[in-house]
Every structure is written in C-alpha cells, then in structure tokens.
Amino acid sequence: MTSIKDRPFFCSWSGGKDSCLALYRSIEEGGRPRCLLTMLREDGERSRSHGLLITLIQRQAAALDIPLIARATSWDDYEETFISALYGFKRDGIEIGVFGDIDIDSHREWAERVCFLADIEPYHPLWKEGRRDLLGELFEVGFKATIVAVKEGVVDRLFLGRTLDVEVVAEFEGLGIDVSGEEGEYHTVVTEGPIFSSPIQIETRGQVLRDGYWFLDVSVCPSDC
To answer: Which of 2, 13, 114, 212 has its CA 20 to 30 A from that of 108?
Structure first.
C-alpha cells in the first residue's frame, strides 16, 4: 500500500467534493502537495468535468496555497494531455498522484495506467469507503460544497445552487439518487473548509444545458456583492 507521508504529490483536481476530501486526507497523512492538476475545455475557460470557470479554480488554488496546473484539451486528446502533464511532474520530483475516486474500478484502472506510464504512484485515499460515511466526514470537518451540475433526466435541476448537506443527502436517498454522485449524477464546487485560508464567495448567472448536464454558471463573487 502506498504511503504518502513526507512525499511530494499532485492532486487531480475537479474543484468538487471528492477531489477536495482526497486532498485533505493526503495532507492530514503527511503528504506534501506540490500542485493541483485541472483539465479544461478546449477554449481554456472552463473545467472539462464540472464546467467551472478557470478564475474560480484559480481562486480555490490561491485559498489552498497550492499552485494550479491547468491543461486545455478535447475529450479525444484528454489522456495524451494528462500523461504529458504527468511527465512534467515526474521531472520536477513529484512522486505520487492523488485521485478522489471511490469505488468505480474503471476510473481507478485509468488512473493507475496513466500514472504507470509516467512512473508516478497513484493514491486513492477514499477508495472503497462508504459513500454516506465520506459525506459525513466532509460535513463534519467543515467543507462547504455547492451543487453546480446535474445529469439531465436523473437529478432535477432544482438542486442546482443548493449546498450539499444532510438535508440534500436525505432527499437524494428518498429519490434513489446515489448520494455521492460517483457515476456523474451531480457535481459540486467546494468553497470553504479546513484547508482553505478563507471562504470563497460565489455568485450564479443562470443555467445552461450542455452534453446531457444542466450546469450552473458560477463565478467568483466581487468583493462588494
């Protein structure tokens, strides 16, 4: 089993709850975060998975005091672009890659394969833990996550903009929705917590349907909002 204590790592960073909890645990276990890696859409303006503005992700990185490495890519070139970033990390002395996957084997297998090519060890601190238990930890230690994307036809877009909390989790359970959204039922953005130097204030500017998801258009709130 990989030990992360006193070792430099990068975190595969979506800006959401699972990558954030994985980062938190890795820091708590003594790992040394060197950078966050976020994959962007081709235009370089939004994250590929959660549709977050690059300015919001940059604000997260600043609040975490961890450098952000962002790479723009299409889905067709995603893996090649990701591996290229990993080669650079290896040259810079990074030894481990942290991922927030919980229990989908194909996701872990992908991470293991791309890390192997760059001679980096993959680390999955959330792996095979109870989804409800992980959310409980997220809430208990003080992270705040807002729902910013929902899969059309699976999760009602009325959930967009709501803070992920015990009430929302209970509603998901009642509706038969996976509470962790591990298969992409919904996505979040984390704006505060124990590893953030200060909370990030956000504002919303409407909703948009893209690639089978309703996304909440979220930006960093101006200081006077």
So the answer is: 212
Please write the tens of the pLDDT for every residue from 78-87: 999 999 999 9
Other beta carbons within 10 angstroms of residue 215's beta carbon come to: 21
CA–CA–CA angle 131, 29, 118 (5° rounding): 85
CATH code for residues 131-220: 3.90.1490.10
Q: What are the residue ranges of helices labelled H in 92-214?
A: 105-117, 131-141, 166-175
| Domains in the chain: boundaries | 8-123, 131-220
Of all residues in the chain, the percent with pLDDT exceeding 90 is 93
**Distance (Å, rounded) from C-alpha 172 to C-alpha 197?**
31
